[in-house]
Amino acid sequence: MAHKADAWFDTGLDHIWRPYCQMKLADPPLPVVATQGTRIKLADGRELIDGIASWWTACHGYNHPYIAATVSEQLRVMPHVMFGDLVHEQALRLAARLCAIVPGGFERAFFSDSGSVSVEVAMKMAVQFWLNKGVGTRRKFLAFKGAYHGDTFATMAVCDPEEGMHSLFKGVLPQNIIADLPRDVETRGLFEALVARHADELAGIIVEPLVQGAGGMLFHEPAVLQHIRSLADKHDLLVIFDEIFTGFGRTGTMFATQAAEVTPDIICLSKALTGGTMPLAATLAQKHVFDAFWSDDPAHALMHGPTFMANALACAAANASLDLFESEPRLAQVAAIEAALTEGLAPCREFGHVSDVRVKGAIGVVELANPFDLDALKRRFVELGVFVRPFGRIIYLTPAFTIEQEELQQLSYAVVKTVSKME
Questions:
Q1: 48, 56, 270, 421: which is deepest, by most CB within 10 A?
Q2: pLDDT digits (tens, 9 = 90+) for 292-346
Q3: For residue 69, what are the contacts with CB-CB under 8 A and spacing of at least 6?
Q4: Which of 207, 162, 157 is nearest to 177 (CA)?
């Protein structure tokens, strides 16, 4: 708990509505007073090694001096101007850089404040793409079981409807088409039939490439995405890649689309875009998508514009983060993390109550056969000096790419030790 001097904790806690928990039952949150590298410092003086990089965002670790200096200078010059009829250097530089480094020839970037909104924008683009072409029937999306794309209403409607966290809203959300990922001959046949049956009402297909993140850290092969792209081309459908989790090195390449060798029509980026420092997201579109909006008709414009769109501070942080990917060995560090997690989590395979252990890039997953007491598990990890936040039947590690080898070993040890005592 916080020290008595930390009145902000005791005073403020009764006024906060926390995410993703039943507050009446959940343990109190941990009061954090500072971060550094891969460590979180608590108000009582304890330090925890962060095993999940603040929901997968802090890829360079906390408080990287280069990002801090860049944002500080931008704050001195100009923290923000509205992006309606005004632009600034940081946003234009960032848009050009993203279009250059994301494979596939993307030409336009639309900035927003969060991953959920970037997906909303992508869905809006896809529907209006067809409306601008005079096709009013293509308003639905095909998404996949195990998917998670956000917490807003449109994004909830393309999450897994049964296993996902949004099943409560099932009767309220727009109805889309939800399929099994086409992993094998049987599911491919069912998928092909489903697409053929609904093609005339589909604006596009949305998928998380290579890893379905919050839906269960579920991995799939590049062949799955290649099949989706091929079928979309056959039926003239747009493909949206949600790379909010997988983008910026997490799966081993800068973007999952590189490993898949598949180019979507629209791609969504966020999470590690600013190195975990500022809220920012981007929705990138191919030229043929943007061309459907380039018109003499004002009604063909994309009518969307967050108040803090392309915030100068956030764009400065993102540019600094891209500089670090260019100047420091991030992908080599991810490869080293992959090797270390593969070795470090391997003992969990021997436990009868573990159904799977899987690693891809800087993602290590231990999946248990049955649900468990989440709060008890979180407490155990804190006792071992690490911050790990399991969900469902999943215990996972997604550390900062800059994590020290000893810290990574401590994370793996904590997972193995904790799981070993769960039988």
A1: 270
A2: 999 999 999 999 999 999 999 999 999 999 999 999 999 999 999 999 999 999 9
A3: none
A4: 157
Nearest to 192 by CA among 239, 142, 140, 158: 142
Two tokens, residue 169: 């809203």
100 contacts: CB under 8 Å, gap ≥ 6: none
Find out whether 23 and 365 touch, Cβ atoms under 8 Å: no
DSSP-assigned states of every residue in 363-384: EEEEEESS---HHHHHHHHHHT
Q: How many CA atoms lie within 13 A of 166 on its CB side?
A: 25
* Region of 150 on the Ramachandran plot (φ > 0 left; ψ -120 to 50 alpha; else beta): left
User: ∠ at Cα 80 (74, 83), nearest 5°?
Assistant: 130
Q: What pTM value is reported for the model?
A: 0.97
Q: CA 352, CA 349: separation in Å to the nearest integer?
A: 8
β-partners of residue 206 are 240
CATH class of residue range 65-327: alpha beta
Which pLDDT tens digit goes with each residue over 345-402?
999 999 999 999 999 999 999 999 999 999 999 999 999 999 999 999 999 999 999 9
* Tokens encoding 25: 């039952």
Exposure string for 295-304, b = 16+ CB within 10 A, e = fewer: eeeeeeebee
- Percent helix, strand, coil in the chain (nearest 5)? 40, 15, 40
Token pair 């860049």 is found at: 70
What class, spelled out in words, does domain 7-60+329-420 have in CATH?
A: alpha beta
Whole-angstrom distance, CA of residue 175 vs CA of residue 140:
8
Between CA 65 and CA 73 the distance in angstroms is 12
**Are 312 and 79 a contacting pair, CB within 8 Å?**
yes
Q: Residue 14: CA atoms inside 13 Å, Cβ hemisphere, count?
A: 3
In tens, the pLDDT along 13-28 reads 999 999 999 999 999 9
Helices within 24-183 (DSSP H only)? 53-56, 65-77, 89-101, 115-132, 153-156
Catalytic residue numbers read 20, 148, 242, 271
DSSP letter string, 281-348: EEEEE-HHHHHTT-SS-GGGS-----TTTT-HHHHHHHHHHHHHHHHS-HHHHHHHHHHHHHHHSGGG
Using an 8 Å Cβ cutoff, are 352 and 423 in contact?
A: yes
* Per-domain boundaries in the chain: 7-60+329-420, 65-327
